[in-house]
């Protein structure tokens, strides 16, 4: 199991790559690529997209995909974001409130 990754931004730049170029080649949104580099997995869309985006990014910077995915499978190593609590909203409370505002 991997304990750490190198500085992804430095690694990418050392290969002469920009996030814009990777976004163009992979069709992954620039904001998702930034989230990957900043280790904010909670900012990715989730589901099957996460592994796909992580694999594509690893390939783009010529990094071992399996090692990359192993790092991101360790929850304690992923940097949380300030908006993470909002993502866990209680919809049973939020939805009725939203419906009232829309009337």
From the structure above, extract its key features.
single chain, 103 residues, mainly alpha, 434 Repressor (Amino-terminal Domain), 7 helices, globular
Your description of this structure?
About 13% of the residues have low confidence. This protein is mainly alpha-helical. The chain has a single domain, classed as lambda repressor-like DNA-binding domains (434 Repressor (Amino-terminal Domain)), CATH 1.10.260. It starts with 7 loop residues before the first helix and ends with a helix. The protein is globular and about 55 Å long.
The percent range for helix content is 55-70%
- Overall, the morphology is globular
Number of strands: 0
Task: Look at the helices and sheets and give the structural class.
Answer: mainly alpha
Q: What is the beta-strand fraction?
A: under 5%
CATH topology: 434 Repressor (Amino-terminal Domain)
Order of helices and strands: HHHHHHH
Stretches with pLDDT under 50, minimum 5 residues: 76-81, 83-89
Overall tally of domains = 1
Q: In CATH's first tier, which class applies?
A: Mainly Alpha
Examine the secondary-structure arrangement and name the CATH architecture.
Orthogonal Bundle
Radius of gyration: 17 Å
CATH H-level name... which superfamily? lambda repressor-like DNA-binding domains
Distance between the termini: 53 Å
Question: What is the secondary structure topology, with strand pairs?
Answer:
Elements: H1 8-14, H2 19-26, H3 30-37, H4 48-60, H5 65-72, H6 84-87, H7 91-102
Helix pairs in contact: 4-5
């Amino acid at each position: 199991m991997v304990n750490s990754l190198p500085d992804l931004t430095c690694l990418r730049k050392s290969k002469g790559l920009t996030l814009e170029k990777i976004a163009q080649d992979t069709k992954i949104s620039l904001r998702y690529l930034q989230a990957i580099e900043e280790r904010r997995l909670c900012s990715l869309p989730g589901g099957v997209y996460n592994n796909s985006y992580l694999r594509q990014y690893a390939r783009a910077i010529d990094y071992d995909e399996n090692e990359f995915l192993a790092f991101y499978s360790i929850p304690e190593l992923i940097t949380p974001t300030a908006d993470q609590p909002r993502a866990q909203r209680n919809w049973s409370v939020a939805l009725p409130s939203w419906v009232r505002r829309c009337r």
